[in-house]
Specification:
This protein is mostly helical and 240 residues long. Helix content is 76%, strand content 0%.
Length: 240
């Protein structure tokens, strides 16, 4: 075995050990071995990627972004690196900076719905609601069984006060998965906001039957009680 082979074998050993430590959530220990690999080979894209992921889990998003960007400079075809860059930008509170990375990830892997969803979320957080809605709808059309797209679209519609449209999207979720209890609560809230008291109560009850121990249970029970206490509008007296 020549010197070059020994050299490359040592780099691979450091990377392999670091990957194993990272997969076991030993992020600080993994960082040490990734750095050892980089001392031997400065253009090791996989080590930069591994460092970025470790710092992401340690919630040091600035360093995570730095190392992930170094990885993409060396290897411009790593979908995961661009995707994680986008995620780290979101976690750091700079959604508009995440957009370009999710676009690059989608270009590399157009069939993966997760990057498309995150692109929609990024536009939503940048308050570009029309663009976000368009992305969610396109994702629904391309991946009709991907429930997260329906969930995010309905949530944004509710945020925009479009409760009727949101309830229709939530109904599509229930058709796909009748056990998706969050959709029942969402429809109940939509009808509640639309002043349809009876319909709201009906869906709130369905929600409680599906998941009586949800984090939303107290809100739903409190809201149902208030709806019961509301007196019906008095009818106008006839003058005939």
């Amino acid at each position: 075995m020549n010197k070059k082979t020994n050299y490359m074998s040592l780099i691979n050993d450091f990377c392999k050990k670091a990957d194993e430590l990272r997969e076991k959530n030993y992020y600080k220990e993994a960082i040490s071995d990734y750095l050892n690999a980089l001392m031997l080979k400065r253009d090791n894209a996989d080590s930069y990627y591994g460092l970025g992921i470790c710092y992401k889990h340690l919630e040091n998003y600035s360093k995570a972004i730095y190392y992930l960007e170094k990885s993409t400079e060396i290897n411009k075809y790593n979908y995961n690196a661009y995707f994680e860059l986008g995620v780290c930008n979101l976690l750091k509170g700079i959604p508009c900076g995440a957009i370009k990375n999710f676009i690059k990830a989608i270009q590399l892997n157009p069939d993966n719905p997760e990057a498309i969803l995150q692109l929609g979320i990024s536009h939503e957080l940048c308050e570009e609601y029309d663009m976000a809605l368009m992305i969610y709808q396109k994702l629904i059309e391309n991946s009709p069984e991907y429930i997260k797209a329906y969930e995010h679209k309905s949530s944004l519609l509710m945020k925009m006060g479009k409760y009727k449209e949101a309830s229709l999207i939530l109904n599509q979720i229930i058709k796909m998965n009748p056990q998706y209890y969050k959709a029942y609560a969402g429809i109940g809230i939509c009808f509640d906001k639309l002043g349809r008291k009876t319909d709201a109560q009906r869906y709130y009850r369905k929600f409680l039957l599906q998941n009586p121990d949800s984090s939303q249970t107290n809100f739903v029970k409190t809201r149902m009680q208030k709806l019961k206490e509301l007196k019906p509008l008095s009818k106008s007296l006839s003058l005939v």
